[in-house]
Design a protein that fits this description.
There is one protein chain. The chain has a two-stranded antiparallel sheet. Among the domains are: about 400 residues, no CATH class; about 110 residues, Serine Threonine Protein Phosphatase 5, Tetratricopeptide repeat, CATH 1.25.40. It has 37 helices and 2 strands. The longest helix is centred in the N-terminal third of the chain and has 27 residues. The chain starts with 13 loop residues before the first helix and ends in a 13-residue tail after the last helix. It is mostly helical. Helix 26 packs antiparallel against helix 27 and helix 28 packs antiparallel against helix 29.
C-alpha cells in the first residue's frame, strides 16, 4: 500500500527529519527509567486483594474466566458480549491470570502493573517518534504514568481492559509514525493490527482514527494550512482526502464496534434509554464532567471509585464548565498557528472522552477516574509543550523549567502513592467513596458486602440500611437477608428475602440470588432456612406448588417449626389446594396452639370452605394470642356478621379502627352494617364511614364501595342520590376489564329497591 503524493509528510515533519539530538542508548535508558520508577511507585498493589465489585463478576466468580484458559472460555470471549461489550483480549488476559495465579490476587495486580509500565514506555516511544522531542515526550509519558487519576485503572483488577487498551493505543500511534515515514502494506498492517488489538481490549479506543487525523496536523505536518510566515493558505482537497482515505479501514472497524457496543450494553441493561433521559440533562452532565476532569487534573483530591449520578446538574456547576471549555477552545484556536500542539492536545482530550462523557449514559456514575486513562494525554501534551516553549524562549530559564517539571512529577508520584492506599481492599475503597461523596447507595452497599465477607455482618447492616434509605433496590435487600442469616436472625432474614424477590422476581439479580440460595441449600442440606428462601423465590414467580414443596421440606427438617407449616399452607392455598392447606394448618396449630397466624389462617380457610362454626373459635384463639392484629380482628368481625351477630361485629370493626384508623375495609363494613341492618341502621354514620373509605382508597371509586355508598344514601332516605350512585357503579362494572356478574346482579336488585323508595335491608339469619 502507498499513499498519494499529496498526503506524504512535509519536509520539516519530525517523523521525516528524525530526532537529531537523541540516540538509541539514551532513548532506552529513559524508557527503562520510566518503567522502573512506575513499577516502584505502584508496587504496593501486589499486596492488595480482589474486590467484590466487578472483580467478582469479571474474574473470580465468572464461570467462563475462573477455570482459566479453556476452549469453551476462549470461544465465549470472542463470541459473547453478555456482560458489557466485546473485548476478547481482556477476557483472555484474565483467563491466563487464573491459569497462572488462581485466586492469588497479587498475581493479577502484578500483571495490571506490568501492562501499565509497558503502556508508559510505549507512550514515550510513540510521542518521541511522532514529535522528535525527547524530553517533552518523556515528561508527558511520566505524567501519564504517575497521575493520581490513573490509579484506578492500575489498582483495580477489573480495569485490566484500560491498561491493555492503553498499551495498544500508544503502540498504534508509534506504528502510525513509522508508517508515515515508510508507507507500505506491512507498516500499515502493523498499525491496523495494533488498533484492532486495542479494540479487542476496550472499545473506548474507537476515537483513535480521529486522533491520527489530529496528529497529521501536528506534529507530523502532513497538511499545512498555514505558511511558514504564519499566513493562511489553501489546503487542497486531494491532500485531505488522501489522509482520510488511508484511515477508512479504521473507521469501518469503529462503525461496526460502535453499533455492537451500544447493542450489547443496551441488552445487559447498563445503557440508559435515550428517550427516558432528556437531551438537555445529558448535555449539562457531559459539560459538567469535562469541567470535573479538568479540575481533577490540576487538583486531584477526593478521588474515589464511584461518583454517584446526581438527579440534576445545578447551573453553578455546568455554566462555569461551559465557559471554561469555550475559553480554552478559543485560546487554542487563537494560538493555532504559533502553538498548534494546543489545539491538537485539547481536541485529543475532548474527543477521546466522547464515548464515556455521558451523552449516552452507561452505568450509574457521573464520571470516573478510569475514563481519563487515555484522554488526559492530550492535556499533558498541551502543558508539556507549552512549558518547553516557555523555557526555551527564556534565556537561562531552561533549568528552572526542568526543575519545575521535576517538582510536578514528584508531586504526582506522592499523591498517587497516597491514593493507592485507598485501593487495598473493598473496605478501604468504599469507605473512601462514602467519605468523599454523598448519596452513594452503591458504595454503602458494597462497603457492607466487604464487611460481611470478613465476618463483620453486624457492622455491615447499618450500611445496607443506609443505602436502602437512599434508593430502594434489590441488592441491599438481599444483602440484609444474608447478613441477618449469618447472625441467626431468621425472622428478619425471611422478611428481607421476601421483599428482595418481590422487587423483580424474574430479573437477573433474582436469578443470581436464586442460584446462590440453591447452592447453599445443596451445601447445607439439613438447614431449613435455605429451603424457606427457595420457597420465597418460587412464590414470588407465582410457582406456588414448588414453593409449597420447598416449605414442606423445611418443615420436615424442622418438625417443631410451626411457622414453616403456616407458610407451606399459604402456598398450598395459593396453588388452589385448600384441603391440603387445611390439613397442614391443623398440624401447625397442634404444634403451637398459641401461633396466632396459624389459627387465623386456619379460620380463614375453614370459612372459605363454608365451615363457619368451626372457623369462629380459631379466630378467637388467634385474637387471644395477638389481640392487636387489625387484620385478624377484621376477619373475625366479618365472620360474626355472617352469623348475624351484628352488634358484636360492629364493636369489632370499631376496635379495628382504634388499632388502625386508616383501615378502609373496616370503614366499608361499618358503613354496610349501619346502612343495611335494621337493628343497627344509622344513615348518617353509614354515610360518614362510606365517604371516609372512598377518601382512603386514593380518589378511586370502586364499584363495591359505590354500592355501599348507595346503600348509605338510601338508609338516610336520599333515594335519588342512592339511585345515581348505584347507576354509576353499574356503569363502571360494565366498562371494567374484569366482569363481575354476581356483584352486578346484586346492585341491579338493590337499585330496584331504591327506585321503590325503600332502603336495602339484610334479613336476619334463620332462627333469629
Amino acid at each position: 500500500m502507498d499513499l498519494p503524493q499529496a498526503a506524504r509528510p512535509s519536509a520539516n515533519s519530525p517523523a521525516t527529519a528524525g530526532p537529531p539530538d537523541t540516540n538509541g542508548v539514551l532513548l532506552a535508558r529513559i524508557a527503562v527509567g520510566l518503567a522502573l520508577l512506575t513499577f516502584l511507585i505502584f508496587l504496593p498493589v501486589v499486596t492488595y486483594e480482589f474486590m467484590d465489585y466487578d472483580d467478582d463478576v469479571f474474574v473470580t466468580n465468572n464461570l467462563h474466566v475462573a477455570p482459566g484458559l479453556t476452549w469453551e472460555g476462549i470461544q465465549w470471549a470472542f463470541t459473547s458480549a453478555d456482560i458489557d461489550y466485546w473485548r476478547p483480549l481482556s477476557w483472555l488476559s484474565h483467563m491466563l491470570d487464573m491459569e497462572l495465579f488462581g485466586l492469588v490476587a497479587g498475581g493479577h495486580h502484578l500483571v495490571n502493573l506490568l501492562i501499565h509500565c509497558a503502556a508508559v514506555v510505549m507512550a514515550f516511544l510513540a510521542l518521541q517518534r511522532l514529535s522528535g522531542a525527547l524530553w517533552p515526550s518523556a515528561m508527558a509519558a511520566a505524567l501519564f504514568a504517575w497521575h493520581p487519576l490513573h490509579v484506578e485503572s492500575v489498582a483495580w483488577i477489573a480495569e485490566r481492559k484500560d491498561v491493555l487498551c492503553g498499551f495498544f493505543f500508544f503502540f498504534t500511534l508509534w506504528a502510525y509514525a513509522r508508517y508515515v515515514v515508510q508507507p507500505g502494506l506491512r507498516s500499515y498492517l502493523t498499525m491496523f493490527a495494533g488498533f484492532v488489538l486495542g479494540i479487542a481490549s476496550k472499545p473506548m479506543i474507537v476515537t483513535l482514527p480521529c486522533v491520527l487525523l489530529l496528529l497529521d496536523f501536528w506534529p507530523l505536518r502532513r497538511f499545512a494550512p498555514f505558511s511558514e510566515e504564519g499566513g493562511a493558505r489553501r489546503v487542497g482537497w486531494p491532500v485531505l482526502w488522501g489522509l482520510l482515505r488511508e484511515k477508512l479501514p479504521l473507521f469501518a472497524v469503529v462503525l461496526v464496534l460502535s453499533i455492537s457496543t451500544v447493542y450489547s450494553q443496551h441488552r445487559v441493561g447498563t445503557l440508559s434509554e435515550l428517550g427516558g433521559v432528556p437531551l438537555l440533562w445529558r448535555l449539562q452532565t457531559s459539560v459538567s464532567a469535562y469541567g470535573t476532569y479538568l479540575a481533577q487534573t490540576f487538583l486531584p483530591v477526593d478521588l474515589c471509585v464511584l461518583y454517584p449520578l446526581p438527579p440534576g446538574v445545578p447551573l453553578a456547576k455546568w455554566l462555569p464548565a461551559s465557559l471554561l471549555l469555550g475559553l480554552v477552545t478559543g485560546l487554542c484556536l487563537w494560538q493555532v498557528r504559533r502553538r498548534p500542539y494546543l489545539i491538537v492536545g485539547w481536541l485529543w482530550f475532548l474527543g477521546v472522552l466522547v464515548p464515556v462523557i455521558g451523552l449516552v449514559q452507561v452505568g450509574e456514575q457521573a464520571h470516573a477516574d478510569r475514563y481519563t486513562y487515555l484522554p488526559l494525554t492530550g492535556v499533558f501534551l498541551m502543558l508539556v509543550w507549552a512549558g518547553s516553549d516557555w523555557a526555551q524562549a527564556q534565556a537561562g530559564r531552561l533549568r528552572w523549567g526542568a526543575a519545575l517539571g521535576l517538582a510536578v512529577l514528584l508531586l504526582c508520584a506522592g499523591v498517587t502513592h497516597q491514593q493507592l492506599q485507598f485501593w487495598e481492599n473493598g473496605i478501604t475503597v468504599f469507605t473512601r467513596a462514602i467519605s468523599v461523596t454523598t448519596g452513594n447507595p452503591t458504595a454503602l452497599n458494597n462497603l457492607g458486602v466487604a464487611l460481611r465477607a470478613r465476618g463483620r455482618s453486624k457492622e455491615a447492616i447499618p450500611h445496607f440500611e443506609a443505602g436502602l434509605r437512599i434508593r430502594y433496590e434489590q441488592r441491599p435487600l438481599l444483602n440484609l437477608a444474608w447478613a441477618h442469616t449469618y447472625l441467626g436472625h431468621e425472622a428478619l432474614a425471611l422478611a428481607y428475602m421476601t421483599r428482595a424477590f418481590a422487587v423483580d422476581p424474574d430479573g437477573r439479580v433474582s436469578r443470581e440470588a436464586y442460584a446462590m440460595v440453591l447452592q447453599h441449600a445443596q451445601e447445607f442440606p439439613t438447614a431449613p432456612l435455605h429451603r424457606k428462601f427457595l420457597g420465597i423465590a418460587q412464590a414470588a414467580r407465582g410457582n406456588y406448588g414448588e414453593a409449597a414443596e420447598h416449605l414442606g421440606e423445611a418443615a420436615r427438617l424442622a418438625p417443631h417449626d410451626s411457622n414453616a407449616r403456616v407458610d407451606q399452607a399459604a402456598y398450598l392455598a395459593m396453588a388452589g389446594r385448600d384441603p391440603q392447606a387445611t390439613q397442614v394448618l391443623r398440624e401447625a396449630v397442634a404444634l403451637a396452639p398459641t401461633n396466632a397466624l396459624a389459627q387465623a389462617n386456619l379460620g380463614g380457610l375453614l370459612a372459605k370452605q363454608g365451615l363457619l362454626a368451626e372457623a369462629l373459635p380459631h379466630y378467637q384463639l388467634a385474637l387471644a394470642s395477638d389481640p392487636q392484629n387489625p387484620n385478624t380482628r377484621h376477619n373475625h368481625a366479618l365472620l360474626l356478621a355472617r352469623f348475624g351477630r351484628g352488634a358484636e361485629a360492629k364493636r369489632e370493626f370499631e376496635q379495628v379502627l382504634q388499632l388502625q384508623s386508616r383501615h378502609w375495609p373496616a370503614r366499608q363494613q361499618l358503613a354496610w352494617l349501619l346502612a343495611t341492618r335494621a337493628d343497627l341502621r344509622d344513615g348518617e354514620a353509614a354515610l360518614r364511614y362510606a365517604h371516609s373509605a372512598l377518601e382512603l382508597v386514593g380518589g378511586k371509586r370502586p364499584p363495591m364501595l359505590l354500592d355501599v355508598l348507595a346503600a348509605a344514601h338510601a338508609a338516610q332516605g336520599n333515594f335519588p342520590l342512592a339511585i345515581q350512585v348505584a347507576q354509576e357503579a353499574l356503569a363502571l362494572l360494565q366498562t371494567g376489564k374484569q366482569p363481575q356478574p354476581e356483584l352486578e346482579a346484586a346492585i341491579r336488585a338493590r337499585l330496584q329497591t331504591y327506585q321503590s323508595q325503600r332502603p336495602h335491608t339484610i334479613p336476619p339469619p334463620a332462627g333469629k
